[in-house]
């Protein structure tokens, strides 16, 4: 009975990770296409640009949108493809080695750091919100939380156990802080939309 319950939790987690991976691939791929489109047609408006503060044009054209000259969206495609592969292995009940779990958790931590960097750059430097980026901001912490939930305890370092215990509370607090940041920082812009 316990084994069945654990498997159902893993199945839900794997299905959830699969959905997040698919969304991340779509977002990364779309932003990559928009980047190439802007390179070919500098005056064009990307499909994800709604108004001056909800726009992906300035985000994907900025220096912050690349690392060592490579668009961050390409890194996203690789990371989400790896997550998609992990999800499919989990859905087929394949055994995942501790090394793979640890690698997935490290990539999730790097993703979280990257999301925080991009939030800071978008909000305080570029003064805009990219819709696809916003979706990635929301899903990356969900991915990390889901990985913590379904990763075998042996793959987690001991210092991470308190985080695992309170993962959903931490996630809720993080979402609340992000919402508060976006409301207060862009208050005047939100008011113009009403």
Short summary of the structure?
This protein is mainly alpha-helical.
Task: Provide an overview of this structure.
It is a single chain. The chain is mainly alpha-helical and 194 residues long. It has a single domain, classed as de novo design (two linked rop proteins) (Up-down Bundle). The protein has eight helices and two strands; from the N terminus they run H-H-E-E-H-H-H-H-H-H. It has helices spanning 2-40, 57-61, 72-91, 98-126, 131-150, 161-165, 167-185, 187-193; strands at 66-67, 70-71. The protein has a two-stranded antiparallel ribbon. Strand 1 (66-67) and strand 2 form a beta hairpin. Helix 1 packs antiparallel against helix 5 (131-150) and helix 4 runs antiparallel to helix 5 (131-150). It is globular.
How many β-strands, per DSSP? 2
CATH topology: de novo design (two linked rop proteins)
Major sheet strand order:
1-2
CATH homologous superfamily (4th level) name:
VKOR domain
* Uncertain spans: 1-6
Overall CATH class = Mainly Alpha
Order of helices and strands: HHEEHHHHHH
Total discrete domains: 1
Task: For this entry, give a set of tags.
194 residues, mainly alpha, de novo design (two linked rop proteins), two-stranded antiparallel sheet, 2% strand, disordered N terminus
Explain the layout of strands and helices.
Layout: H1 2-40, H2 57-61, E1 66-67, E2 70-71, H3 72-91, H4 98-126, H5 131-150, H6 161-165, H7 167-185, H8 187-193
Antiparallel strand pairs: 1-2
Helix pairs in contact: 1-3, 1-5, 4-5, 5-7
